[in-house]
Write a structure and sequence with these properties.
This protein is an alpha/beta fold and 343 residues long. It folds into 2 domains: 92 residues, Winged helix-like DNA-binding domain superfamily/Winged helix DNA-binding domain (Arc Repressor Mutant, subunit A, Orthogonal Bundle); 196 residues, 3-Layer(aba) Sandwich (Rossmann fold), CATH 3.40.50. Helices cover 51% and strands 17% of the residues. The strands form 2 sheets. Strands 6-5-4-7-8-10-9 form a 7-stranded mixed sheet, with helices on both faces. Strands 1-3-2 form a 3-stranded antiparallel sheet. A hairpin with a 2-residue loop joins β9 and β10. It is globular.
Length: 343
Amino acid sequence: MKIGFKGEKLSEKLFLATGILPEMAIMPFFSTVVSNAYLTAQRLDIFSLLEKNSLSVKEVAKKTEADEHGMRVLLEALTGFGYLERQNGKFQVSRAFRKSLDGNMSEMARGMMIFAPDIAKKFENLDKAVKTGEVENFHFTPITPSSWSHYLTFLKGVSKEPTKALVKKVKFDAPPRKMLDIAGGPAQYSIAFCRKYQNLEAIILDLPESAAAGEAEIKKAELEGRISYITGNFFETDWGGDYDFALLSNMLHCLTAEQCQTVIKKTFESLRPGGLIVTNDVDFPGEDEEIQMVAGWSSLLYFTMMGTRTHPTPIIEKWLSDAGFTKIKKTKIENSAQLICRK
């Protein structure tokens, strides 16, 4: 998938088809304006104000403590971009945007909305990061006081459907009894696996902030006796052992190549003989293979947020083999690749 314009009118579609319009040059020019308008609206809480209310420019300006002229220009631009609708001099969230906020993927949409301004703030330093290679990992240096809350809301929103697909994808010879969920965040994976396997106990390794959010989710799911956390730096903490199953889902991209190899080796040591390991991350190609949009996008995002990257799937496969895992099998869920193998 590539990012691009579709064109609204026939004349625009024809221009794009003939190549008269320099699409690749136009895209960043227009997308910069659109994304900054969206982010400003999110920071000023405009979408929340207009989701349930139809308000005039003056009313929105007053509620957001903004200049009336500036607010008028912003609201009109957001209307032109399709986020808002205008009727009788009043603005509200458009039907098209409301579909995203209320549809089947509403949790994902709202999670992305909440976390987007934090991501944008990190991207302000991309020039410096590329030049120096030095990036403050937002897990340990939050962007704003609210960043952790926004991040966890984002994680829960974007992982709901992929978690269901992952649980269906992973097959066992016998029902697992003990699971290690490495950097399992707010417990969404552990909850899903424990609901499917009634005798499963899950241990989640993660930071205290994730554990605090996850414990609330575990209580809501009435699984307090079966899911627990080991908090802290998982390079230093004792993981326990004799696990039937270890999950590394969307976490290797948070680590350097050296750290990934350390975690995979430590996972090998924590599993019982015959135990299963599953890695799940965006599928990044090997050397000289075509890089799809999602793969390139995700890798740049992780570099900007943490100084890491999306590791190529063939490299992860080699790390697993080097650690001693065998019978490596690759599967796919949308843009993500799962590597499933045994100790």
